[in-house]
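Lab notes, practical 5.
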Amino acid sequence: MTRKLSPFRSGGAVLPVIAGLFLASGLIRFGGGTAQALTDEIRGMAQKPSETQAIAEPCPPPPDIAAILAALQAREAEVAAREALLDERAATLDIAGEEVARQIAALEAAQAALQSTLTIADDAAETDVARLTAVYENMKPDEAAALFAEMAPEFAAGFLGRMRPDAAAAVLAGLDPPLAYSISVILAGRNARAPRE
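Output from the prediction step:
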């Protein structure tokens, strides 16, 4: 079987010839001054305008647009003034906020110092009361009863409530019955108003 050649195949050298012509045309154009013209144009753009070139001055706007422009410029100046005032107020508020924070920190430090002082005072008072209670417990019941007879009933009840039951009973036995009764009522009712929950 014989193969027929396609009509496109017979001119197989035409494509390289056309490509060569395009290449030659491009070389001629770039070599003929086009490249130089492009280079000059790029240099001209990069250079600063010369002093001889006239600087175009803006033309004045029409009267109706000039009024609108003036109103817009006045409004812009008003907005800028308000913005400056708001910035000033914000700065003042920032300063005031810093001062308040500083005062809060000082108050918290003073509160902590006061709490520490109160804790020390409470501990010292508790230690003193515990020591005095121990003294009353170790006294002879007759001597302690004579001392408790001179105390206010609320004050005496406070000490008797802290004493050991046997020592408190001995002191109460040495007191006059009406005084012993009033101290007993105070001792019995001192937790009556305490919350139940």
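Observations recorded by the TA: The radius of gyration is 55 Å. The chain is about 80% helix and 0% strand.
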